[in-house]
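ping. complex inputs:
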Amino acid sequence: MSESVAPAVAGLFVADEHGVRVLGAKCEACGTPYFPSVPVCHNPACPGSRMQPCGFGGRGVVWSYSIANFAPPPPHKYDQPFRPYAIAVVDLASGLRLVGQMVDPPEAVTVGAAVELVIDTLYHEQGKAFTTWKFKLV
Amino acid sequence: MQEVAVVGVGLHRFGKAGDAIVGNKSVTELCRHAVDMALQDAGISWRQVQAVSAASSRFSGGKGWGLNGNDVVEDLGSTGVPVYNLSAGCAAGGNAFNVGWSLVAGGVYDVVLVVGGEVMPKGMIQTAGTEEVTDPEFLRQRCVGIPGPAFWSMLARRRMHEFGTTEEQMATVTVKARRCSVGNPFARFQQAITLGDVLNSPYVSNPLRLFEICPVSNGAAAAILCSPQKARQFTGKPVWVAASAVATLGFDDSLPRNLAGPVPTGPSYHTEVMGAVRKAFERAGIGPRELSFTELQDNTCYYELAYPEEWGLCEPGEAEHLVEAGETAPTGRMPINPSGGFVSFGEATTAMGVFQIAEVTWQLRGQSGARQVPDASVALAQTNGLGGNATAAILKR
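pong. complex structure:
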């Protein structure tokens, strides 16, 4: 029997036949990508905000990363015992620089590594697995 | 616009809540100590202060909504002076200095007190205050989990990739900082440490270790700013403000402060800091290589390597060698943080921008003892704070 699964925060990402994507927006006037979505474009050089919903996924390259050697304070949630994880800053080919946890162990992560966006469990609560977007080495 | 002088400065030594230095003192008590010292240094009385520019405390304060300017005024005696409470995260002290400078430079007041102080919560700073899905910081912490120091360690890791910086070189920055703190009566830590001590301290956020990241501290700082006419009445040796600038980050800033942004086409750096520092150099008419020394915001050793290069104090990729050659020590050719910096003081957020003004003033007067920069005549003080705030001030003899 598969465990019950829910997103840590609803409406931020999707996994379907087109793959995994975080759900943001893009300004059609100047091309600026946003995640999460914003109602108006923040680019001071934009000729006029034209926001459209847009998903960002696929592959990217690790710009840099750090390791959480200690658990962050609330509102972060994690399973006990705490296990250090890598946090990657990834330049996605789809144009978004996105921050996310790595699925892989910290010692496997390097700057410049190729990764892909995935959905993975962040923590468990009341018998339910709560998920978020993460990156995985490819 | 008129010239602005710094005629008095004061600090309460930084410490950890409950220790022998700060004990259980409130932020108001810490501020009173610093203000009394600054008033005495200037040779003026509280009743002569015409306005207060306060770095608005984020974590403490008797009014319960995170300010201390009003508390300080009430404590010193409610003279009815205007109080400007400035909020800019760790840059708030720099912002308060800038507003104090603006008020005097613009001729609105002749004598202004600038003050900042903090009683910090323990441990890592909690950056998200609410559980609101509309708060990007909540999403960042709930969905990813990014402890405060992780932002700095991402930058340090990237520098290691670009310049081949080693962990030993980063640790050397801390060894230098702690050597400066020896004999500084206001530093929380006043003992030198070895490379081995730093490299044996645990990782907080790999590649950054415990001794390479400033802890949270309690402390306070104050400065008295004056018009030239008043300054000459109060003191024979005023220090002059050559420039004071504030900036916020640019749209093209691509540092990972939020969950996401556009993939940049150029380099990634602190655009708010570059904005403030460049403006300060321009307004002062002083170039980066003319500085006698710099007090910069070293929340971690990374900044002592990156900032001097970004601002043109030295060439890109040169900082590690300057540190190793001792050139960033008070007697070197590019002294950085002769005070000992944030790594030796710990961070009492809103005090920091004013603490730097105190150190710069003492240095320019030649009163800094063992950590004195020889013949210091002009210096830069820089802060940056959460939300994309930065300040820069250039002071001269």
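Chain B has one domain: 5-123+213-396.
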